[in-house]
Structures are given as structure tokens and as C-alpha cells.
Amino acid sequence: MRSVHLITALTYLGLSGCDSLQSLSPKNTKDFLLESPRLSIHGNLPVEQITKELTQSFDQYAVENWYHDIATQGHSAVKSLKVMLLGNGRIGKTQLARRLRNEQFDEKVPSTQGIQLHTIDCTSLLDRPELSIQTWDFGGQDVYLSTHNLFIDKRAVYLLLWHPDTENTEQVTCEQILIRNKPLSYWLAYLRSLVGKDANILLCQAQCDTPDLDCQAPIPFPNPFTRLQSTPTSAKTDEGLETFLPLFKRRLDYQIQQNGDVWLPNGWIAVIDKLSDLREGGTKQIAFSEFETLCKDDKISVPLSLANYLHQSGSVFFKQGHFNNGIILDQEWALQGVYLLLDRKEALPDLKDRNGEFSASTLERLLWKDNQAKQDHSLFLDMMQQCDVCFEIDEDRYIAPDALPNKSDITNQINAIWQDAESEIELEIRYDFLHDATQRSILSNIGSNAKKGACYWRYGCCYYDSEHKVKVALECHEVPESGYTQEDIDNFRRPGLVKISITGEHAQKYLKHLTESIIESHHFGNKPEVKWVKGHISEERSDTDFKLRANSNEEPFSQIGLAAEPPKTKPSVYFSYAWGSAGEEHQDICDEIYQKIDSDPALDVHRDKNSMNQGDSIDAFERYIARADFIVLLVSHKSLYSSHCMKELAHMYHQCQRQQNEFISKVIPVILSDAKIDTLKERLTLAKHWKNEFDETNELIMQLEALSSGKESVSELEELKLIQTSCANVTAWLSDLVTERQADLQVDKTIQLLERRIKEANKT
Question: Which residues cross the membrane (predicted)?
């Protein structure tokens, strides 16, 4: 690569997978870019003195701005390091981080949830005043593992803590949640896959408070790293820290040497110092316009390049179009907002009870109890989605992948989508190390496109793509140790598979896009391999490699359409009505309509009395009604004031995306004489009733607080909110329809309307 600047006719330079390139000199690189103005560079092109944030995925525009600002402002060398503390939960990482900050051991300090960021005083502890060191204390509990990869840096020093008592995979209880220990071999494989064999690791046996506790670390043979040292460590005793510090300083010196002499324009450093002052003064975030003003004062040519560099280097959070279009200075504050969703005391147990589904109001009751912070709620939700902690399936409806149920708990929903179909194509994407982050991110990317019509579990999904007319089943799982090959063992792998089965009209094209999206977007270390289990993609098949498209502008996962109910062999008809006794008008009409259409073998007819068994969930059946092809809706005074009937009506409203035409096409209304919805005053009176129900229930829950009122009360309140927000619209739609109001004609007219709607649906 040192002679590449001599090639002046290049238009495209692809460097993906070229991880051992020698660095170009800054002068040659500058000449190269000036001589090749139409050159497009993809991949890692290392350049001496230019920070890797700009060259790792080569940002040509930012590099040119770096040259300009260096020439106009001068430069300074930067000596800053990250120190990452990893290991099982409750093993002592937080206590060691405290001692590095000259704070005393305190056993009352709780274990880390998420990530804690701190700065080390390098003058007093290490006698290195020129150094700027930031510690990243990662929560070791497995619920947090899947977000670590967002912050892992190949140029950091890693303090990996282990203890003989946690060298197992046992589940232990931690604040209401079962967490699983990870042995040292797992953590080493984890770092090998994320950072590579040259990771700078100091392996620390934690809690070695006395010399007799020292023991040999169970490092696999052969040693998978070129730079791995071990030491006993104690945060509790000064002697244990004295053993640790010399090796720690040595690791820091080595990393500084490896990182090389990095230049930053003086204007960039001036802005970084100003941002640091703002952060120290308590400023959590600033608008991008305010950041642009700071850059203008220090004559920075393109503020966006500096903002992207600061994000890539881990100094701030910034992404155009997100985070309220601002720059987050206080990362720990922002991360705590994100990790609230994984809170082991309140959020996770509650979310698991909800099968992972929640709304903003759910979080307000569980987590966001400080009304002063309401303006930050949308920012936290945005960050949660950016970190794949959750994904949106509908307006103000989200799913947290870590709280999803097991596959075995939702087999009925999966079967309802797959319908005993035979897959046309099956393949496996095999990873050397299948990270939790990869599994979560794949599911989040699919879910944010497929939305609420898909069926989700941890970590998998099944859905019918209504746009491409395909059924898809995807599931991630780790290979058990009994399934490891000798090559896996020799190369220190912890393999896993993403299994995909697909059938339908456009199965080949769809699977190609889905597989490429997964491979291109979600891998650490070596790219995964694709194994064809059944079928293949015509003229694209390769048993050892999946041929990725070159230079495509198509975004990963962009072709996934909305999930919907799959086509049925016969249309489903559900009944929504208020229960009554024989002789009551609404019950007699319901019985007569049901008996007549249930006798039609071409229809799949369901009514709660006839379709539910003892022990079945009423709530689940109410949701199934909304997803039916057609709903016979008996509207009576009793149903309008029944919470169950109105919940069913609200679910229909939202299932139809709040679109009147969609609602009318599937709802077959039977409006009885006592249903008062014909005038605006009558409809508003009904809406007022449900608003009062919501307000009174909300007030009671607020008085008792969420913990005392119970999770089901909070869920019921959210259902009342759905009723409140849909009541006026949906009753107006019903009153606008021409329907038979004469009781003795309603049965026949209803059946005729149902038959007509079915014919209309078949034509489309």
C-alpha cells in the first residue's frame, strides 16, 4: 500500500478484510486524494498520525477536512486511553475502578448496571500527568452483555476480572432476575472475537485479599492472545493493589506505543476542551447549532466531521437525525436512561410478564417517575432503539428483546402463522462467536420493519411478509459445547447459528436480501459462513461463501415489508358482543347469526363461548378478534359500556391502523336499538364516560404507586387509554354506516353483508 499513491487512475479502492495493511504516510495520502478526486475508498486505509476513527471505515470527506484544519490551525499530539473493565457480575470490577480513582473500597456500593464512566487522576496514582485515561466499568450480568460491543475499542487496555468461584455456567439470583455466570474461557473468546488476538489484556484474579488465595488462571492452551498477562488483584487491600499497579502501568505504556503518535488539529482540541468544561459544569447535552457555534469560534471547517469523530472515539453520543438532533455530552447519564429498561429490580420482571411489550406510559410508571425529566423521555427511547435495547412495532408500542418469552411459550402463535407450510429454502449462518448483541440486533432490525404482525421470542421471529408474500422463520441459538468441532476448540470459538426457513412467491429474492443484510451488518471478527440446508438461490449458490452484492445502495433490511396475517384457506369470522341471557335481544340475535354462519363449511367461525376452553386467556382471545378477517360486531348499550367489548373494539381500531376504510371492510356491524351512538352528543357522552374511567383509575394508581397497585392494574389502565383514544372515532364510523335497524331483519341482512364483503375481499 505504500506505493498506492502512485496510481492516479483509480476510481474505486475496496479494502474490506485487509486488516494487515501498513500505514501510509500523511504526505502520500494527501497527494493520493488530491490526484484522485473521483476515488471512492471502502474499508480500512491506515494513515500515520491520522486518528483511526477517520480511517477505520475510511471517511474521505473527514480526512480531507482533517488535512485542511491541520494546515490552517496547527496540531497537537493526543495521549488518551480507555481502560475497559470486564467480567462476571458482582466480581469486583466496580471496586477496582474505585481504587483507580483513589476512592476507598466500599462493600455497600451496588454492582454496576450497564456502564459507568470515570476519569483517572493519572498524576497521583500513576505519576503520568500527561495521560488522559477514562475507565469504562461494564456491568457483567448477561442482560448487559449484548450492548458491550457498542463501546469496545481495539486501542484500549482491558482489565478482565475472574474468580475461581464463578468458573461455571450456573444461574444465580440477582435482584429478582436469574443471571448466568460466564467462565473465563467465555470472556477470552468474547474479547478474541471483538478485539482480535492482539488485544491488550491484563487478567486479574479478583478478591485476592491474602496471598494464599492466589491461583493459576485457567487460560486455555494454546494461549489465544499475543498480549495477555495475569496478576492477583485485591481492591480491598493496599498490598493487592501494589501487586497490580506495576503491570497495569506496563500495559498502559504498551498501548500508548501501539496507538502511535496521533495528531488532532488545535481547533478540534479547543472544542473538545470546551465540551469537557460544559460536561463538568453539569450540561448533559447541547443542540447541534450550539456545537456549530463552538466550532465556528475555533475556525473548524466542517463541524460534522468533528462531531462524527467525537462519537466514534467514545467522547460523546451523536448521530444525525437522532438524540433530538443534538450532541450528548454526559454519556453516563444517557446510558443510565437506556439501561433503565434492563433494570433488574423493576423493569425486567415487569416486561417479562408483558412478553416484552411496552409503551412510553409503561416506562413512565415503571422508571420515569421524575416529571422534571419528561423532556428527556423521547431521547431515551431513541437511544434505546439505537442500542437495540428495544424496537418499535406500532405507534407508541415497543418490544424489548431481552424480555421476550421462550419459543415454547408461544407455539400456538407460531403455528397460526406458519400453518404447517413446507419451507422451500433453509440455510444456516454460522458464526465463530454468536454474540448476544448480534442476536438482539438482527431481531430488532427485522422487527422494526415487520412491526406488530410478526411473532417474536428470544431470539427469533416468525412472520408473513404481506408485501413479498413469503413466510419467514428465523432463530438464533448458540451451539452447545457437545457440538463443538476440533477446529472450534483449537481456534477458541464459541460458535452459534442463525437458522432461516422461508417459503412463498418471492422466497429466493427475499432470502438473498435478508441473508446479505445479516452478514453485512452483524458480525465481529471473521465473517460468518452460510450453509445451505435445503434448496438454493438460482445461479447465486455457493456452498462455502455467500456472494454479496457489490457497491449496492440498498440499505440492509430495507426490503422487509409489514408482517400480516397469512392468507387462510378459508376466511375467519369472529364475534364481538356483550354476553347476555336467553331472551335478551342482543344475545338472541347473536345466537341466530352464529348458528347460521357456523354451518357454512367455507368459513372459520369463532365465538368465545364456543372457541375457548377453561383456563384460556380472555385477553388473548380479545386480541385474536382484532386480527380476524371479518368481525361480526353486535353494538348494544351493554357492549358500549363493557370494558371487554370496548377493548375488542379498540384493538380493531388499532389493528386497522386507525384507517376508516380498512375498518369498514372487515367489520360487520349489527347496531341494536338501545345503542345510542347516532348523534354527536350521544357519542361524546360515551367518550366522556370512558375518559372518566381512565382518569379515576389513573388517580387511584397514582395514589397507590405502581408497586402497590400491581402490574395488572397498570396494564388495565393502558387498555383504558386505548378505549379513550379510539371511542369517539370508531363510534362515528359505525353510526355513519347504512345498517338494518329493524330487529326481525337484522339476521338475514347481516349474513348478506358478510357474504358481500367476502366476495369483495376475494376480488382484491
Answer: none
Q: What is the b/e burial string over 317-334, where b = at least 16 CB atoms within 10 angstroms of the residue's CB?
A: bbeeeebeebbbbbbebb
Which cell goes with 565?
A: 396475517
- Chain segment 269-312, per-residue pLDDT in tens: 999 999 999 998 999 999 999 999 999 999 888 888 888 888 87
Condensed to tens digits (0 to 9), the pLDDT of residues 715-735 reads: 888 889 999 999 999 999 999
What is the pLDDT averaged over residues 167-171?
Answer: 79
CB 533 within 8 A of CB 426: yes
What does the alpha-carbon distance between residue 285 and residue 496 come to, in Å, rounded to a whole number? 39
Strand partners, 474: 461, 500
Distance, in Å, from the CA atom of 327 to the CA atom of 319, rounded to the nearest integer, reads 8
pLDDT at 112 over 70: no
- Sign, CA dihedral 324-325-327-332, equals positive
- Which residue's C-alpha cell is 476480572? 161
Over the stretch 564-584, which tens digit does the pLDDT of each residue have? 988 877 888 999 999 888 778
- CA–CA dist 706, 366 (Å, integer): 7
Q: How far apart are CA 551 and CA 542, in angstroms?
A: 20
Instruction: Give me the half-sphere count of Cα atoms (radius 13 Å) on the Cβ side of residue 491.
Output: 15
**Residue 549: pLDDT band by 50, 70, 90 thresholds?**
very low
How large is the angle between the packed helices 618-626 and 643-655, nearest 10 degrees? Answer: 40
Torsion sign across C-alpha atoms 31, 34, 35, 37: positive
- Topology (CATH level 3) of domain 411-534: TATA-Binding Protein (3.30.310)
In angstroms, the CA 531 to CA 542 distance is 9
d(CA 618, CA 630): 19
The whole-chain average pLDDT of the chain stands at: 84
Element (DSSP H or E) covering residue 591: helix 585-598
pLDDT at 542 (0 to 100): 43
d(CA 362, CA 503): 37
Alpha-carbon dihedral angle through residues 150, 155, 157, 159, given to the nearest 10 degrees: 30
CATH number of 344-403: 1.10.10
Phi, psi of 637 (to 5 degrees): -60, -40
CATH architecture for segment(s) 4-75+262-308: Orthogonal Bundle (1.10)
Q: Where in the chain is the domain with CATH 1.10.10?
A: 4-75+262-308, 344-403
CATH superfamily of 80-259: P-loop containing nucleotide triphosphate hydrolases (3.40.50.300)
Over residues 624-643, the mean pLDDT reads 91
Rg (CA), the chain: 30
Whole-angstrom CA distances from 103 to 46, 96, 106, 236, 333 are 39, 9, 9, 11, 21
CATH number of 572-763: 3.40.50.10140
